[in-house]
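Mods, move this if it's the wrong board.
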Amino acid sequence: MVEPPLDKIHIRDLQLRCVVGIYPQERKEKQDVTVNLTLYADLRAGCASDSIEDTVDYKAVKKKVVATVEDSSCYLVEHLAQRVADVCLEDPRVKRVKVTIDKPGALRFARSVAIEIVRGR
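Not the wrong board. Structure tokens:
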């Protein structure tokens, strides 16, 4: 059996705030993070029908991701990225997801530190 193609939906530069970090000063107030997602799915049905019921509702996915991140209090960005990936994979049409989370100012002299993970079913 031939696997269907995996098309991509990109959600770029979600600017969110959450508690994330291992140091006491990082646990006091929410910090800025930037979330980028690539959702891999077979989008042929939506391409043909022009109907939201036949594709990934990326607005719904985005809302769940925003709620997950903004309500989180993780020590590691890696853990936060896994939680975001899990939320994205709740949609059965999403077969794989790439999650990149940037934490600006995490390192002195660096604009950002980013964690990128890829998860699938």
